[in-house]
Amino acid sequence: MVSESATNSKKERVIGQSALPLARVKRIIKEDPDVSLINVEATHCIASATELFMEYLVNEGYSRAQKNKRKTVFYKDLASAVSQTDPLEFLEDVIPTTMTLEEAYRRRDQPDDDTGKDDQVTSVAKRRKLQFKPSTPKQQQQQQQQEEEMETDSSQQQQQQQQQDNNDDDEEEEDGEEEEDAEEEEDDDQDVEDEEDDEEEEE
Questions:
Q1: Which of 15, 44, 97, 120 is least enclosed by beta carbons within 10 angstroms?
Q2: Tens digit of pLDDT for each residue in 13-64?
Q3: What is residue 94's three-state secondary structure?
Q4: Cα 77 from Cα 57, distance rounded (Å)
């Protein structure tokens, strides 16, 4: 049997050490093509941050398991934690919520256009719910001014983008004309050289 002191020592976190193998963490970091070298301190910081993140994720899943009067954390607990916790939203593609096989087939058979429209409708509805509803005339006037400013900003951005596109087109045309002129000069020089060679041969 393992003594209580031994089990407690395993649970305690030793300062300056990581529970994750640093060599493997370093190997995973180097899989990124933008990273060529990484020192020991940076590897240790990333490993410690990974430990804290894993601890946070598991605690969120365990709290949901406790609500269902369970001690075992299942996949659905982690998926619900990801879908209901704002800091974990970026994991929705990695840990998606579970669904029945029938629902999966139904989503697969739906056309992409309809799903895109549904997503747009839901996003617009969410924005409308979160939108500030003015209650006084002064607040209504302020909101109207903000909307007008946003419209003017968007129109100015469109004009700037259009002007930039026109400038790019003009530069491309100028480059093309310069290349044509250079080719014509090369052709003229070649013709002169050919004429000189012909005269030398005749002499």
A1: 15
A2: 677 778 899 999 999 999 998 888 899 999 999 999 999 999 999 999 999 9
A3: coil
A4: 10
Judged by DSSP in three states, 8 sits in helix
pTM of this prediction exceeds 0.90 = no
Structure tokens at 145: 């001014």
Measuring CA to CA, how many Å separate 180 from each of 28, 87, 170, 172, 184?
52, 57, 15, 12, 6
Place of tokens 């954390």: 73
Q: How far apart are CA 75 and CA 10, in angstroms?
A: 26
d(CA 157, CA 165): 12
Inter-helix orientation angle 40-67/22-29, to 10°: 100
- How far the first Cα of the chain sits from its last, in Å, is 112
Listed residue (52, 42, 46, 51) closest to 19, CA to CA: 51
- pLDDT tens digits, 54-91: 999 999 999 999 999 999 999 999 999 999 988 898 99
Residues near 174 by beta carbon (within 8 Å), at least 6 away in sequence: none
Separation between Cα atoms, residue 80 and residue 122, nearest integer Å = 20
